[in-house]
Design goal:
Strand content: 5-15%
CATH architecture of one domain: 3-Layer(aba) Sandwich
CATH class of one domain: Alpha Beta
Number of helices: 23
CATH topology of one domain: Rossmann fold
Radius of gyration: 29 Å
Largest sheet: 5 strands, parallel
């Protein structure tokens, strides 16, 4: 019997490729006498200036997939944990557009987000409010993670050893950073950003002097006076690029993924980590999502779709699949991709339980469900449900079940909750995206003749209602009526009968909607013309 850890060593799925690279990194560290102490740490970062978004979900779900692949590959030989850290000590550069009473936040510009009052009135600070939002968001998907606040790490001493090391290595860090900056920025740059003792703001000022022995920095405060204070205890933070590398070193991060917008800076993060005496983590760069027009999705532009948008029309597993597939390829993320993602997810789940172990670990469903995909989540595809809603003109889920029960008598809302949810999603998706764009057309003479023939065959149908047999019948009708390109015949069926240019296998539609009902639908279309 093949062992799954043995299969994992050859698996081509990208989470296993990353897991093997991570294991190689750990083995190399052991050879260098730097054996991993404590758990293998997987990290994701979160910018709390805005709400968690689809990119946040993507980083955590993909990192979770790599973590599970690593645990499988190593057969539990290493303890692991996932850290989600909120960069809540960053200064608030501008007032978020979504907050109530934004004017009350104006005095707090450039203060750490954990010193900015919570305009929603639920927490002590805006940073804490957004951290709670992140945890609530992640808990919704049952992620297994440890939440860290950057502010807390700066204040409670977690970062102190590496902050003091960074002060000792100040000149080396400057040597890395200065070549990346323009002349004007070089003149005022410091990797340390002190917190003003008078205003509480994060200050972007040059250092007048540093004292590694005492662990202090001297700078000019906003009131013009020189101030000397420690870099520890939350009295200072690092600029974001040195902070990235410092955090890797301080938390012992072994794996982190980030978007392509970080790719050029990744060597800088790694250099900082090495300067601080640590080994940079295994890194994975993913491509960013594009909108329908091929533009990069931006929260500022509002040209993307949110997690909430997606989950209004499809189950979360379909979004996980979309995140899993080709992470290093830029993909368009807009509402039209949802039905395909849902049906691909259902197909992968159906295939999984008949595949050998070698294929199972390559199946996205294995990674989405941490090795335990559900059995046959739905006997009806999402595309078929959408076409059923279109043809049957139904508005309630129980009306859809009238058709579903005839097509799959073994299924009920209780035994097939995924299918029950899909029925609700289909109704919403149809109303919002299909119905407004439906355009029926009439048949030409050849199409009308073929439709009449199909209607007659269906009215005379006395065989079992089987989607494959009905598909063959539809195929033969098109062929006998001189459709050299049968795709045009099937396209005509959908354009004439359902007002859209494509759909699932028509035999499956007939079986679900009903043989007699489909004949009536054809007759109505011919009469309408």
């Amino acid at each position: 019997m093949t062992d799954i850890s043995e299969v994992s060593e050859k698996a081509k799925a990208w989470p296993f490729e990353q897991a093997r690279a991570l294991l190689k990194r750990l083995k190399n560290m052991e050879k260098q006498g730097k054996s991993k102490q404590g758990p293998v740490v997987f990290e994701t970062g979160y910018g709390p200036s805005g709400l968690p978004h689809i990119g946040t979900f993507g980083e955590v779900v993909r990192t979770t997939m790599v973590k599970h692949a690593f645990e499988t590959l190593t057969d539990g030989a290493y303890e692991t944990k996932l850290i989600c850290i909120s960069d809540d000590m960053d200064g608030m550069r501008k007032i978020p557009p979504t907050v109530p009473n934004p004017e009350i936040l104006e005095p707090y510009i450039q203060m750490p987000l954990t010193r900015v009052p919570d305009p929603f009135g639920t927490h002590q600070s805006y940073g804490e409010h957004m951290g709670a939002k992140l945890c609530s968001f992640l808990d919704r998907f049952n992620f297994d993670y440890e939440f860290l606040s950057a502010t807390q790490c700066y204040k409670d001493g977690t970062f102190d050893p590496m902050l003091l090391r960074a002060l000792e290595k100040f000149d080396e860090i400057m040597a890395v950073m200065l070549p990346t900056l323009g002349a004007e920025r070089q003149a005022s740059y410091s990797p340390f950003l002190p917190i003003s003792p008078t205003t509480g703001r994060v200050l972007y000022v040059p250092m007048k002097s540093i004292d590694p022995a005492r662990g202090t920095i001297t700078f000019e405060d906003e009131d013009g006076t020189d101030v000397t204070q420690p870099v520890t205890g939350g009295m200072a933070k690092l600029q974001w690029k040195p902070d990235f590398g410092m955090r890797w070193a301080a938390l012992g991060v072994d794996f982190e993924m980030f978007g392509k917008d970080h790719q050029d800076n990744a060597p800088i993060y790694s250099k900082i980590t090495r300067i601080l005496g640590a080994t940079p983590p295994q890194q994975f760069v993913y491509e960013l999502f594009l909108d329908e027009a091929g533009e990069k999705i931006s929260k500022t532009k509002g040209n993307g779709i949110s997690v909430e948008d997606w989950l209004a029309y499809a189950p979360p597993e379909s979004l996980s699949l979309f995140q899993y597939q080709k992470p290093r390829v830029a993909k368009k993320l807009f509402f039209d991709v949802i039905p395909k993602a849902v049906d691909e997810y259902l197909t992968f789940c159906d295939k999984f339980h008949t595949e050998p172990l070698e294929r199972q670990v390559e199946n996205p469903a294995w990674h989405i469900h941490s090795g335990l995909p559900p059995l046959a989540p739905s006997p009806v595809s999402f595309a078929l449900l959408l076409n059923l809603v279109s043809a049957a003109n139904v508005e309630e889920k129980h009306q859809l079940w009238g058709f579903i029960s005839r097509y799959a008598p073994e299924a009920t809302p209780e035994t097939h909750p995924t299918l029950d949810n899909l029925a609700g999603y289909a109704l919403r998706y149809y109303d919002d995206f299909v119905k407004p764009n439906k355009v029926y057309r009439g048949p030409d003479d050849k199409e009308a003749a073929a439709l009449k023939a199909l209607s007659a065959e269906l009215k005379a149908w006395d065989q079992p209602v089987d989607s494959d047999t009905l598909q063959t019948l539809t195929f033969s009708i098109g062929k006998s009526h001189d459709f050299d390109n049968l795709r045009l015949w099937f396209q005509a069926l959908y354009e004439i009968l359902l007002g859209q240019s494509q759909g699932p296998r028509f035999g499956g539609f007939i079986a679900l909607y009903g043989v007699t009902e489909t004949a009536e639908l054809i007759d109505q279309a011919l009469a309408r013309n």
